[in-house]
TrEMBL record:
The chain crosses the membrane at residues 47-70, 120-141, 147-168, 289-306, 327-345, 380-398. Keywords: Membrane, Transmembrane, Transmembrane helix. This is Sporulation integral membrane protein YlbJ. Pfam families: Gate. Signal peptide: none annotated. Residues 42-139, 222-318 form the Nucleoside transporter/FeoB GTPase Gate domain. It comes from the Bacteria.
Amino acid sequence: MKQIAKTLLLSIMTSFFAFALLKFPDQSLEASIRGLNIWWEVVFPSLLPFFITAELLISFGVVKFIGVLFEPIMRPLFNVPGIGSFGWIMGMSSGYPTGAKIAARLREEEQLSQIEAERLVSFTNASSPLFIFGAVSIGFFHDVKLGVLLATCHYIGNALVGICMRFYRIKEDKQQKKSKSGKSSVSIRRAFKEMHQTRIRHDRPLGEVLGDAVLNSIKTLVVVGGFIVLFSVITKLLFIINISPIIASVFEQLLNILSLPGEIALPFLSGLFEITIGAQMLSQITTDSFLATAILVSFILGFNGFSVQAQVASIIGKTDIRFAPYFFSRLLHGIIASLLTVILYKPLYLDKQAFEMDDVAVSQEVSQNFWVTTLDMLKQMGPIITIVFLGLAGLILYKRILKKDVA
């Protein structure tokens, strides 16, 4: 009976979405183009180098080398192997869904257990500094000081989520921890040995390794692009057919209970679906207290939005990593980041505004120029990079098909 209900629900939702697309083709096309522009201008060119680098470092055993060195830090803090440090750092520097990609790859290589991979996914999918500073704080709010507040709350909150998730299913992997307890000391020699053994296990021609790295990365990013376009259209259609305002009225009551202005309910709801749209809409709302806006922006950054969550679900769906721990951690991250925003709003934002000095202004201008320049450069060069690498992937696939036909 449960499966029948699920089938009916999915078929009704899909049919309704198809009908909405036919009813509003112009608005759907506009939303699709917007999502596509975000993907091929910024997302693809900014994430591709990180994805390819991660694939190569895993294949050559460098991640295993890092894992042995960072085991004494990662195990006590987050209850994951030292190789988790690679996913954590890459996830923070490049943004989502890099953490999920690396965790899934390490799970496929059996360098993580199922539970360890679920812990790792829960705190390695963060917003990148480029998005927080370049897109949100400077691009939308035109305020670099807000970026300092949001980034601090976001990354501290992310680490606290990881510490909380260390207790996830802790009893189930107790035996595994005991078996590894004798290898927790830092050893350069052992780290190099592990790296060498990992490289030997993946002993393939360099060209094949590079080709696989490019193909795997591009495949993942094409899926990511599909979800960005899909959720851009869904968000637009929900607003056009007045479903978003109805749901927003429920959120408005909840925000009033929390002493937050009700007029930011609709932007907040949009942010739960797609972070960029929600942050942009929140930047256009004028409230009596800017703190309320900062709190909700922090929450949606930590929550990731259903669009990013769908991307993560598609990446980990090829493994036995479960989605539920990740979803719970996103709620937890949103709540912790919001609370940190309340606590740090005065010292990191208000006090900096009140203490305007020439040297501070100059340093902020330099920082602002850096993020704006980086974002503008991506928008200009991004489409060219995307087209070149899509063509390269097509060429690699074509050569491999010819090779198979000859063989």
